[in-house]
Amino acid sequence: MTSEGTAVAGPAAGASGGRRSRRGADVPALVESARNGDARAVARLISLVEDASPALREVAAALSPHTGHAQVLGLTGAPGVGKSTTTTALVRALRTAGKRVGVLAVDPSSPFSGGALLGDRVRMQDHAGDSGVFIRSMASRGHLGGLAWATPQALRVLDAAGCDVVLIETVGVGQSELEIASLADTTLVLVAPGMGDGIQAAKAGILEVADVFVVNKADRDGADQTVRDLRYMLSLGGRHSEAGHWRPPICKTVASRDTDNGVDGVLSRIDQHREWLESSGELHRRRSERAAREIEAIALAALRERMGDVHGSAALGALADQVVAGATDPYRAADELVAQL
Amino acid sequence: MTSEGTAVAGPAAGASGGRRSRRGADVPALVESARNGDARAVARLISLVEDASPALREVAAALSPHTGHAQVLGLTGAPGVGKSTTTTALVRALRTAGKRVGVLAVDPSSPFSGGALLGDRVRMQDHAGDSGVFIRSMASRGHLGGLAWATPQALRVLDAAGCDVVLIETVGVGQSELEIASLADTTLVLVAPGMGDGIQAAKAGILEVADVFVVNKADRDGADQTVRDLRYMLSLGGRHSEAGHWRPPICKTVASRDTDNGVDGVLSRIDQHREWLESSGELHRRRSERAAREIEAIALAALRERMGDVHGSAALGALADQVVAGATDPYRAADELVAQL
Hints:
The structure is a homodimer. Helix content of chain A is 51%, strand content 13%. By secondary structure, chain A is α/β, with parallel strands linked by helices. Chain A is globular. At the A-B interface, helix 4, helix 7, helix 8, helix 9 and helix 12 of A face helix 4, helix 7, helix 8, helix 9 and helix 12 of B.
C-alpha cells in the first residue's frame, strides 16, 4: 500500500467516476490503484458498478480474484435506535485495532433529498482524514431493487480494495433491508428502550436475522426490560434453540459522539460469532448462498432486459391496460411476454 | 348477495382451502360463492392464489372480468405508530357508511411465530360477526418476494368478491412494504409524535408514497411539531409542489379501541384524493402501472422456474461456489445460466 490518499468515497467522487466512465475507464489501472488504497479509485469503481455502466462486467471480472478477504458486518434496526452513532463507534474501535474498514450506508432514496438526507458530510466528520476508512452512502435512485442490486457490487469493490472489515448499515426494517443485511457474515440488530414493545420488534421481522443483539441507549429507562423481552422472544424461537446453532447474545451499549460504552463487548461477540461461523462451516454456506442469490438476480435482470428488447415497453403497457379493463388476467399477459423470448 | 356467511378469512380457513385444492377446486363455483358474499369461498380463493396452487391460473382467469370495482387504500408507517387501531377505526367508519370492506394485513414472516404474532384473533375482535368485513393476514412464509407476489392476487379476490374498499395495511417501512403500498389507489402514511424526528422519517423513505398523512396519537406532546416537520419536508419536495399535482394533506387522529377522533376527516381526504385521481387520469395510470409490474413479476417468476428446470438447483450452487472461490464473477456465472434457456 504505497498511497492511501483521501479516504472519502462520497457522491462528488462518485459523480466524477461517472464522467470518467463515459470516456471509458481504465479498469485494470483502477483496480490496481484501489488495491493500493487509493480512495478515489475505490469511489470510481463503486460508481461504475452502481450505475451499471458498460464497464461493469469488466470491473466484476477484474475484482473477483481479489475478493473473499473482508469480514462483512451488517447493522440494522428501526429508525431512531442510533445506527449511525453505533457505526461510528464500531469504526473507531476497529481502527484502533488496526483494521482497514469500509462502510456502506444504505439509505432508501427520497425525492426530497435526491439521496441520503443526512449526507456524507455529517456522517464522515469523525473519520475524515483517516486513510484507513472508506465511507460510501448508497441511494437507490428510484430503481426498484436498486440497492439490493448495487450493494453486493460495492461490497466486492471494498473487499478487493483490501478492507479487513466492511460494515453495511441499513436504515429501516423491511424486506429489502433484510436482504441487504443478509449480505453480512454477522448481522447486528440494534434496538433501543422505548421503541415499542417486543411484539412490535417481532412484527418488524428483525429478530430472525440477528446474530448479535445490541440494546443501544442502555442508560435509558427500560433497557433491562428490553433485554428481558429479547431474551423471552429468543426463548420462543425456532432455530436458535437447536443444538449446534448459534444463540444470539444480547449486548448493551451507550454509543454517542463522545462515549463508546459497551462497544468492545460487541466486538468480542462478533469475534466469537466469526469463530463459530468458521468451525461450523456456516461461513462458506452463507457466502455461497449469497453468491447464488446474486447470480440469480443478475440472470433475471438480463432476462428482463431481453423481454424489453423483444417487445418494447409499449407492449407491456398495452397488456397492462387489458388487465385493468378485465379483458385478460396477469398470467395470460405474462405468458404472452415470455412465449416469444 | 343471498348469503354473506361468516366474515373472517383467517389462517385456519386458508389451510382448509389448501387441502381442498389438493382434491381439486371447483373454481367457477368458488368464484360464484365469493361473489355472493361467502367468506369461506373468499378464504379458499385467497389460499389458492397465495399458495401458487395448480388452480392459480384458472382462478386468475375466472376473477378478471369481475375486478376493478374496489377502491384500494394502503396504510403504512413505522412500527408503533398505531396502524392496527387506525385500520380498525377506518373499517368501523366505512361500515357505518354501508361499504363492504376487505382488509389485507401484511406481516413479515417470523420463524418465531410462524406468521403474524398479533394473529387474526386479536385483530378481528371488533369486527367478528360483521358479515360485511373480510380480514386476511398475509405472511410471507419465508419466500423472498412472497408478499409482493401474493398480495395483488389476494386483492383481486377481494375486489371480485364485491368489496367496495380494500385496505392494505403493511408493517414496516422497507422497499417491499412500499411496493405493496403502491398497490393502492390512495396511500395513507401514519406517523406519531416522538417516533423520531423529521429526518428519521425521511430516511425511512415513506414520504414519497404518501397521498394523505395521518399524525396519529395526536393527543400526545409534540403532535403539532410533527405536523410542522411534515409540512416543512413537503415544502422541500419535488413532485408535490408542481402544478396539477396532489399536495398530500396532513390529518390528525386519536385512534384507539374506544375513540375515533379525526377518522372522519381522514375519510373525507381520501374522497378528495379519489376525485383528484379520477379527474386527473391518475387513477388509470396508477392501475395500469400496477398491472404492468404484476405481469412483469409473473413473467420473471416463470423464467426463474425455467432456469431451475433447465439447470437443476445444483448447477446454481456449483456456480456460487466458484464465485466464492474467486474463480469466476457473478456476471459470467449468470451468463452461463441464461445462455441455455
